Amino acid sequence: MAVEKASRKLKEKKKQRDEEAAEELSLNVEGRERFQFPRDEEELKQQRSGDLSAVQHRIQDVFQVLADFSKSREAEKDRQDYLRLLCDDLCSVYGYNEWLMRRLMDLFSLGELMEFLEANQVQRPVTLRVNSLKTRRRDLAQALISRGVNLDPLGEWTKVGLVVYDSQVPLGATPEYQAGHYLIQGASSLLPVMSLAPKEGEKVLDLCAAPGGKSTHLGALMKNSGLLFCNDANGDRAKAVVGNLHRMGITNACCSVMDGREMRKSHPNFFDRVLLDAPCSGTGVISKDPA
């Protein structure tokens, strides 16, 4: 199948990247001066609170030690000593707390960890989802361009996405926004709804619906037919769902505020499809909000 072939290609590319990263980290290790584990805690604190260039250089040195640990480590230091030093240095450079950095270090390989941290330093572009119930992407793009918005289609994989590079007007206050012609929504948020692929006339449940971006996308794909059930356990957040449903012109929806675990008792075997985008850690918004 095409999906399996694409998956194999991705795995092969990842394996190649990992091998190249390991080769780069170990390059010239033999010819380099052996890294000396720092002993002065006060000096470490001063470096981490001031010029970070020494800290960044030490991060690279620790990476090289870990890449060839048996040959490069100091005899009295174990791997955990180097990982603790690396964790503290990464927290200083990238501004993460120790708890989150340790979780990331458990989750990723060292090469993947650096890719993740660097990616979160890059500002993500703003993306819009066109409301197909009210307009076409081409018409909306022309209207926004006339208002001073620099944008392009998001990609071949979506017919309703636009990526915004810069704007002379607030995107959340244009007449088109107020009329429900688009929603400001992350590109990755389009994928769960596309994967669910609801059909017209079906009964669909969005179990954790707030603030309503995916719910309104579901309603548009269903073309306001069937039944769209939007639930959220938080009553205050559910108000945003109601507002977005009204603004985007979704008329096949009803809303509830209840524990999603109770839904199977009140509506057993009722829905054709269920979307569960459960509350998460929120680490995906680090690039938008460093706090």
TrEMBL record:
InterPro entries: MeTrfase_RsmB-F_NOP2_cat, MeTrfase_RsmB-F_NOP2_dom, RCMT, RCMT_NOP2, RsmB-like_ferredoxin, RsmB/NOL1/NOP2-like_CS, SAM-dependent_MTases_sf. The keyword rRNA processing does not apply. Its main location: nucleus. One of its GO terms (cellular component) is nucleolus. GO terms for molecular function: RNA binding; rRNA (cytosine-C5-)-methyltransferase activity. S-adenosyl-L-methionine binds at C208, A209, A210, P211, G212, G213, K214, D232, D259, D277. Residues 1-27 are annotated as: Disordered. Keywords: Methyltransferase, Nucleus, Ribosome biogenesis, RNA-binding, S-adenosyl-L-methionine, Transferase. Residues 1-19 have a biased composition (Basic and acidic residues). GO terms for biological process: maturation of LSU-rRNA; rRNA base methylation. PROSITE patterns: NOL1_NOP2_SUN (PS01153), SAM_MT_RSMB_NOP (PS51686). Signal peptide: none annotated. It is found in: Nucleus, Nucleolus. The keyword Cytoplasm does not apply. Belongs to the class I-like SAM-binding methyltransferase superfamily. RsmB/NOP family. PANTHER family: 28S RRNA (CYTOSINE(4447)-C(5))-METHYLTRANSFERASE-RELATED, NOP2 YEAST -RELATED NOL1/NOP2/FMU SUN DOMAIN-CONTAINING. This is Uncharacterized protein.
